[in-house]
Amino acid sequence: MIPEWITITFLFAIGACVGSFLNVVIYRLPRDLSIVHPGSACPSCKTPIAFYDNIPLLSWLLLLGKCRKCKARISPRYFVIELFTAIVFLSLYLIYFHTQLRKGVGGFFDDGYFLYLIQMIMLATFIAASAIDLELQVIPLVLCWLVTAVGIIGSGVAVFIYDPVMIRSYDLFPTASAKVAILAAGALIGLLTSLLLLFTGIIKTSYAEQSPDSKTSETEQPQPITYKHRMEMLKEVIFLAPILICAFAAYKLYDWMPAFQNWWIDFSQIPVIAGLLGSLWGYFIGCTVVWATRIFGTFAFGKEAMGLGDVHLMGAAGAVIGAWPVVIAFFIAPFFGLVWAFICMFFKKMRQIPYGPFLSIGLFVVMILHDAVMNWVRFVFFYR
Fold first, then answer.
1. In which element (H, E) is residue 231 found?
2. N or C: which terminus of the chain carries fewer CB neighbours within 10 A?
3. What is the domain count for the chain?
């Protein structure tokens, strides 16, 4: 039996190391630089950082936030990200395995480690995405795709680690009923259709960068691109149409053909299939709540409302935590935005920040209050 203080110390240290790697991702990914090579170097003098100067948390403190060689200031962001990630690693462990807030997760060294691992991958990735969003007002989609893949694969693999009955009883991972599964399968066919139409040029990408005017000389500054935002949203509606149509058609096929319905129930309720399609449904629902807000908001106000990065971020979260939790997270995120708005009004000099970090905070809150949230959902929407 491993002493608890060793587990706590280990997870905090691992979190700090992950935070150190996230700093590399935050700096290099949006600048199209490799996150693997070359090794870390001082941003000012480009001197490679020795291993003893690259110890998470400690090195920044011992060097007083300065480069050992040129004495240039190193942003405190590096220390903050490392410390914050370590705290999140430790907090999730303590909440899941030392409180009654989340039941059914099991012991950490029995099977609980898997749920912890999948959700920590999501949280760590969203820390990087939020930091990039704060700095550059953009969320790299590759981060969202990574979390989506982890969520879908993790939900399929989970049935070999947890008892499928426990997964459904405690909503440990997304899982789908037969009806939800057919909707997810139909939506997937529609998504593949839309992507094929997009690839072949039959439908157009919204907010595509226009090629520069050939008459513009090299010395002239390129003119800023102006968009008709409602027309751009119409392109996105056209992209989404096959997804909605195929989901509806699949559901009607399930409803109208008893023979197919019986086969589908048997097939879709195989634990692995139910997990994969449940995660996929969570992805579609996460995307839907943000994309609907983006489209209706843009049509209403005539300017782009929310970004596609937020759409993919919530889709990725839905693939990990499921459809209902991601919807609740979306609707509580504005409250954190309001708190920040009041702080900005009070201090006046503080700037507005993008929405991605608020969505991430909302997701974390829903994760740690998962059981209470799901009990409320069942009471309001199913038991009344």
1. helix 229-256
2. N
3. 1
Q: Which two tokens stand for residue 106?
A: 């099991």
DSSP assignments along 273-303, one per residue? HHHHHHHHHHHHHHHHHHHHHHHHHHHHHSS
Cα four-point dihedral sign 255, 245, 176, 355: negative
Q: DSSP strand E in 217-279: where?
A: none
Residue with the two structure tokens 């199209």: 32
- In this structure, is residue 230 part of a structural domain? no
Higher pLDDT, 18 or 334: 18
- In 3D space, the residue among 321, 269, 315, 316 whose CA is nearest the CA of residue 292 turns out to be 315
* pLDDT tens-digit readout, 143-171: 999 999 999 999 999 999 999 999 999 99
Spatial contact of 85 and 16, defined as CB atoms under 8 Å apart: yes
Give the relative orientation of helices 141-157 and 308-321 as an angle to the nearest 10 degrees.
Answer: 10
Question: For 37-89, what is each residue's pLDDT tens digit?
Answer: 878 887 778 788 888 888 899 988 988 888 888 888 888 999 999 999 999 99
3-class SS at 226? Answer: coil
Confirm whether 183 is domain-assigned: no
Q: In a 3-state reduction of DSSP, which class is residue 73?
A: strand
- Contact yes or no for 331/285 (Cβ under 8 A): no
Stretch 227-235: mean pLDDT: 90
**Residue 236: phi, psi to the nearest 5?**
-70, -35
Cis peptide before 140 (omega within 30 of 0): no
Residue 140 lies in a domain: no
Query: Smallest Cα–Cα separation from 107: which of 159, 161, 157?
Result: 161
Q: How far apart are CA 251 and CA 275, in angstroms?
A: 19
Give domain status of residue 75, yes or no. Answer: yes
- pTM for the predicted model, two decimal places: 0.92
DSSP 159: G
CA distances from 275 to 120, 147, 165, 364 (A): 19, 16, 12, 22
85 is in which domain, residue-wise?
A: 1-99
